[in-house]
UniProtKB/TrEMBL annotation:
Keyword Ribosomal protein: no
Keywords annotated in UniProt: Heme, Iron, Metal-binding, Monooxygenase, Oxidoreductase
Cofactor(s) required, per the database record: heme
Pathway: Secondary metabolite biosynthesis
Gene3D superfamilies linked: Cytochrome P450
Name of the protein in question: Cytochrome P450
Superkingdom as given in the UniProt entry: Eukaryota
SUPFAM superfamilies: Cytochrome P450 (SSF48264)
Length: 380
């Protein structure tokens, strides 16, 4: 998937470059528009060989608008509560509530697109590297009862677009903001990624050896800014939740475990766990060096996460299926953006909870999800 990712990301970077040059070589812009464009273009190509035309096709605009609406509604109380209530009372999903309609808009856009490709049999099923071609190929060779029905294939594609687009865009946004706030870290990263002018492959980027600082910045971004900042799981049976550190009950006695009843909903605050001071020390600080220093992770007390001892991709059999893709993509995006532009903060940003975490301007909350940054092309 590497060449497809580089192709999509380079296109967005060069469009952004032209738009900045047209404004005289410096521009303030809402970075959300550009990060969402990049990740949608990447997922379109790698999930079902579709070109979202650098976020300019009607479908791309509709998906991005759907997300923006959903994110902004989720930041308000009524939207946040509607989504929470949906878990408890699924029938609410049938009501014409804006927060719920915004979610189905995305599905309504992606499904017909994927359906056209399935019906056409996809242009290059034999060699296609995208996920849909791989699934279709597996279907051709499989016994009849093991084939994935078309309807299910379409749902998979919708899931990939929903799970793989906004999430990666969120981490990239907040990481770029953190780099904008920390010019010395940004400079150090640029110096490392400028030391190579090729487009590294998955193997070259997956290992932390070739680009140790890029690896450290990526890990720090994923740790501090998990898009799915809180998750829910439902206990299938009565169980007992052991506590790492005992807590004092109202009667003054120490509690070492919590009994759980079947059906009980457990909230998993990934963003809080990823920042625990007891594990990370200065857990709220953006400090990529912690991943390089010998004693960077105090006492080696890693959380059992699917990747890199953090809960960003959760853990266990239902953890994120696309985490390698997401980490690889993030490294490509950071490399391409940092090679091309210098980033400066414009406004103070706060982090808001929604379906994914969202940035909001502290002094102008009415503008909804927004990440203004000042960009300048990196001089030769
Ligand atoms: C920054 C990027 C990403 C983050 C933080 C992320 C995070 C997560 C999390 C926390 C879950 C578990 C949800 C739950 O159990 O409640 C999940 C599930 C999933 N993710 Fe990701 N994800 C990312 C990117 C991707 C990408 C790029 C893809 C694929 C194209 C993907 C595909 C999936 C799928 C298919 C599941 C469902 C797995 C299952 O239920 O068995 N994700 N993701």
């Amino acid at each position: 998937m590497g060449p497809d990712m580089w192709y999509a990301v380079n296109n967005v970077v060069s469009r952004l470059h032209s738009s900045i040059e047209a404004k005289g070589g410096e521009r303030e812009l809402n970075m959300l528009d550009w990060t969402a464009t990049s990740t949608l273009d990447v997922i379109g190509r790698v999930a079902f060989a579709h070109d979202f035309q650098q976020g300019q096709s009607p479908e791309a605009l509709s998906i991005m608008e759907g997300w923006r609406k959903q994110a902004s509604l989720g930041m308000q109380w009524e939207g946040f509560l509607a989504l929470l209530a949906l878990r408890q009372f699924p029938v609410i999903g049938k009501l014409p509530l804006p927060a719920i309609k915004a979610q189905s808009n995305i599905k309504n856009t992606v499904r017909p697109l994927a359906s056209q490709l399935v019906q056409r049999g996809v242009s290059d099923v034999e060699h296609g590297r995208d996920i849909l071609s791989i699934l279709l190929r597996a279907n051709v060779g499989a016994e009849k009862e093991k084939r994935i029905p078309d309807e299910e294939l379409l749902d998979h594609i919708v899931t990939f677009v929903i799970a793989g687009h906004e999430t990666t865009s969120v981490v990239l946004n907040f990481t770029l903001y953190a780099l904008a706030q920390n010019p010395a870290i940004q400079k150090k990263l640029r110096s490392e990624v400028m030391s190579c002018d090729t487009e590294p492959t998955f193997d070259e980027l997956w290992s932390s050896e070739n680009f140790p600082y890029l690896d450290a910045v990526t890990r720090e971004g994923f740790r501090l800014f998990p898009p799915a900042s809180r998750n829910e799981k439902v206990a299938e049976k009565d169980d007992v939740l052991p506590l790492g550190t005992p807590i004092v009950g109202t009667d003054g006695r120490l509690i070492h475990e919590i009994p759980i009843k079947a059906g009980q909903v457990i909230h998993i605050p990934a963003i809080a766990v990823n920042r625990f001071s007891s594990v990370w020390g200065d857990g709220d600080v953006f400090r990529p060096e912690r991943w390089i220093e010998k004693e960077g992770i105090p006492n080696g007390k890693f959380i059992p996460g699917a990747w890199s001892g953090m809960l960003t991709f959760l853990v266990g059999p239902r953890s994120c299926l696309g985490y390698r893709l997401a980490v690889f993509e993030m490294k490509i995006l950071l490399m391409a953006f940092i090679r091309a532009f210098e980033f400066e903060p414009v406004e103070e940003i706060e982090t808001r909870m929604s379906a994914t975490i969202q940035p909001r301007i502290v002094s102008r909350p009415e503008e909804g999800a927004c990440m203004p940054l000042r960009l300048r092309p990196v001089s030769a």
